[in-house]
Amino acid sequence: MMFEYLPILMFVVLFLFLFLGVPIAFSLAFTGLIFSISLWGFSSSGLLTSATWGIMNKFTLIAIPLFIFMSILLEKSNIISDLYDTLYKWSGGLRGGLAIATILVGAIIGAISGVVAAGVIGLGLIALPQMLKYNYQEKLSLGSVMAGGTLGQLIPPSLNMVVYGAITGVSVTSLFAGGLSAGIFLSILFIGYILIRTIINKDIAPALSKDNRATWKEKFISLKSIILPLILILIVLGAIFSGAATPTEGAAVGVIGTIIICIVSKRLTWKSFFSSVFESIKMTTMVGWILIGASFFSAVFSGIGGNQLVSEIAQAAPGGKWGVLILCILFIIFLGMFLETVALIMLAAPIISPLIAEYGFDPLWWGILFMIILQMAFITPPFGFAIFYLKSAVSDRIPIERIFKATFPFILLQLIATLLLIFFPELALWLPKLLE
C-alpha cells in the first residue's frame, strides 16, 4: 500500500528541496537519485546517464541556444527601446496608449526572440518608467509589463514550445502556428481590457498632452526602427511555416539575421558580441541542467508507478473527459506556482499529454492550451518567474507585494482565454489548419 503513494512522496521531497533553496535542476536530480537508489540500488544511477544522453540526442533542442543567443543580442542592441519608442509615438495620444504599446512591443519581442526574460526585463526598464512618468496607475502599468513581456512564451519562436514538441512528439511547426494565432487573440484580449478600463476610469491611463505627443513627421521617421525587426520576423517564421526550414534551422537563420541587424544599426561591438556569447552559454547550461534533472525525475516517477497513479486518479474524476481536462489544468496551474516552466513541461507533459490524447482531445490543441496555462504560470504568485524578472528591473523602488497585486487582473484574463479556447478550439487551430 505504501509503495502506491511513493509518486506523491517524490513531489513532497522535491518541494522540500525547493523550499530549502536548492536550485531546481539539482532538486529534481537529487530527488530522483534518492528514490532510485533507495528502491533499486546504486546501479540505478545509470538512469541519470541515460537521461543526460536522451536530452543531448534531441536535435530539436539545438534551437534553444540559438534563440537564447538571438534574444540576448537584441537586448544588447537596444532594439526593444527602438520598438517601444516607435509605438509610444503612435499611440501616446490615446488613453491607455502607452500600456497598449507595451503589449504590442511584448508581442513583437516574443516573435523575435521567444525568451520571456528579455521581454519582461526590457519593458520593465523602458516602458514602465514612461507609464509612471505620465501618471498611469501603477497596478495597470506593472500588469501590462508582465502580460506583454510573457507573450514570448506563446508567440513563436517559443523556447517552451520547442521543449514541449521534443518531449511529446507534437510538431513544433504546428505548435508555432497555433501559438501565433493564440498569441494574437490574447494580445487583443489584453488591449481590450486596457481600453475598457480607460473608458470606465479616464484617469487610470491618461492620454499624453498635446505638448508631449510626437508630430506626424516624428511618427513616420520612427517607423524605420521597426522595419528590420519585422523583416527578421517574416523571414524566420516564413521559413518555418512554409516548410523551407525546420524550427532549428529557422533559429539559425534568426541568429544570422539578428547579427546583420545589429551590424547595420551600428550597435554591435566585439565586447557586446562576446558578452552575448558568454551569457548565452550560461543560460543554455542552466536550461540544459533543468532538462536533464527533470528527465531523470520523470523516468524514476514513471518507474515507481507514477503515470499509472495519475491515470487512476483521472479515471476516478467526475465529469468524464471534461473532468480529466479540468483536473489536468489545475495540476499545471498548481505546479506553475512553484516550478520553472521548462521543468514543469518535462515533469507534466509526459504524464498528462498522453492521458489527454487518450480521452480524445486533439494533441495540438492541448499543446497550445498547455502553453497558455504556462504563460499564466509566469505571472502567478508566489514564484512566477516574470514577477522576479520585473522585480530585478525595478529594484527596491516597488515592493514585491504590489507586483503580486498587479498580476491578478491579467491572470483572470488568461483564465478567460483558457475557457474560450476550450469552448472555441478554432481560436487556436485556424492557422495550423490553414498551413496544412
Secondary structure blueprint with pairings:
Elements: H1 6-19, H2 24-40, H3 46-56, H4 63-76, H5 79-91, H6 97-112, H7 116-133, H8 138-149, H9 159-168, H10 172-200, H11 216-222, H12 224-241, H13 247-264, H14 270-303, H15 306-316, H16 320-336, H17 341-358, H18 363-378, H19 385-394, H20 400-423, H21 426-435
Helix pairs in contact: 1-2, 2-14, 3-14, 4-13, 4-14, 5-6, 6-7, 6-8, 6-10, 7-8, 7-19, 8-20, 9-17, 10-18, 10-20, 10-21, 12-13, 14-17, 16-17, 16-18, 17-18, 18-20, 19-20
Number of separate structural domains: 1
Work out the helix count: 21
Helix content: over 70%
Task: Specify the structural class.
Answer: mainly alpha
First and last CA, distance: 49 Å
Cα gyration radius (Å): 22 Å
Give the SSE order as H and E letters: HHHHHHHHHHHHHHHHHHHHH
The shape is globular
Mean pLDDT: 85
Low-pLDDT residue intervals, each spanning 5 or more residues: none
How many beta-strand elements? 0
Share of residues in strands:
under 5%
Describe the main β-sheet briefly: none
